[in-house]
Amino acid sequence: MKFRFSVVMPVFNRAKYLRQAIDSVLSQTFTDYELIAVDDGSTDESAEILRSYGNRIKVVRQANQGPEVARNTGVALAQGEYIAFLDSDDIFFPFVLETYDRVIRAFDSPPMVVATEFFYRDGREIPPQYFEPSPVEVLVFKDYLAKTLSVNCIQSKFAIQKSVYDAVGGHRHSTAQTWYGDTFDLLLRLGTRGPCVFIQKPRTFAYRVHDGNSIKLIKSHAGGMLSLARLERKGEYPGGSARRLDRYALIGGTASAWALKYCWRGKQRKLALQLLYGTAPMVVAALWKKMLRVFQKPLKPIVLPDVASTDSSESAVSQMSLSS
């Protein structure tokens, strides 16, 4: 591969936030990367902003087809060993790619690295300490489905080996109207690939909360989750019967949280009940796994050696953590 990382950024009418997102990538302390922006049929000034960066970024333009197709378009052109996703309204902290690289070297190129986000509301300042690097702490599981911690499934928090992304078929070939549930679908396809490393500290990117967040489209996301449940029943996801409980718990935990936190509180109670009914066995699986965690010993975070440490010490950390 030509680069360590290909940062893939789908863009659709994000002129207000786009420059800040791009600049956050171009400010990385780790420089072995390319940035591919896929303009998914924007009708605002996004195209002009992208052109203003010249050859510092690669720009692809396509008719509006939705973020899944846009990400697949970007990945198809990527020359990086790993794909680091960033949505065009989020911000990478300056050390995110450097942190990813340290984790990748320490754990012998895991298929997926999962970052930790900082939520902030649009218009507010991000505290300056979040832009400073700090010791790296991680948790390691045999794969994503084996995790015992809650994860906000935001696309900007995943770095995935390109060969693995390609092997599972990438994102679905959905449309601009049917892409909901995109991140969960990809994670279910990647769920048995391991090991999976979760960065607990530092927080590596900022998730911007604003009026245009797709999370506000409650009915569409509920429909996306019901679609995932149907695909699971059809046997679309890997792991077979041995991992059914894990897949059910992933879908059920998300569906129940969405039904209660967004549908019910948003006074769409009929929709909340439909979602819970449509994923009932999976909600039960999620509750069962949550109850079992009470009796499990908490996993102790692994602190990576500092940057000055040798590659051999990082390899030792890898062997120690994966054998425990």
How is the secondary structure organized here?
Blueprint: E1 3-11, H1 15-26, E2 33-40, H2 46-51, E3 58-62, H3 67-77, E4 80-85, E5 91-92, H4 96-106, E6 112-114, E7 117-121, E8 137-141, E9 158-161, H5 162-167, H6 182-190, E10 196-201, E11 205-209, H7 218-233, H8 244-264, H9 269-278, H10 280-293, E12 302-303, H11 311-323
Description:
The chain folds into two domains: 3-216 and 299-323, Spore Coat Polysaccharide Biosynthesis Protein SpsA, Chain A; 218-293, no CATH class. The radius of gyration is 19 Å and the shape is globular. The two termini are 32 Å apart. The chain is built from eleven helices and twelve strands. The strands form two sheets. It has a nine-stranded mixed beta sheet with strand order 3-2-1-4-9-6-10-8-12, sandwiched between helices. A three-stranded mixed beta sheet has the order 5-11-7. Helix content is 40%, strand content 19%. Helix 1 links the parallel strand 1 (3-11) and strand 2. With 324 residues, the chain is α/β, with parallel strands linked by helices.
Quaternary structure annotation: single chain
For the CA atoms, what is the radius of gyration? 19 Å
Terminal-residue CA separation: 32 Å
Task: Determine the structural class based on helices, strands and strand pairing.
Answer: alpha/beta
Q: What ranges have pLDDT less than 50 throughout 5 or more consecutive residues? A: 318-324
The total count of strands amounts to 12
Order of helices and strands: EHEHEHEEHEEEEHHEEHHHHEH
Instruction: Count the domains.
Output: 2
Overall body shape: globular
Biggest sheet: strand arrangement: 3-2-1-4-9-6-10-8-12
Number of helices: 11
CATH superfamily of the largest domain: Spore Coat Polysaccharide Biosynthesis Protein SpsA, Chain A
Provide the residue-averaged pLDDT: 93
- The percentage helix is 25-40%
Largest sheet: 9 strands, mixed
CATH architecture of the largest domain: Alpha-Beta Complex
The first-level CATH class of the largest domain is given as Alpha Beta
Strand content: 15-25%
In CATH terms, what is the fold-level topology of the largest domain? Spore Coat Polysaccharide Biosynthesis Protein SpsA, Chain A
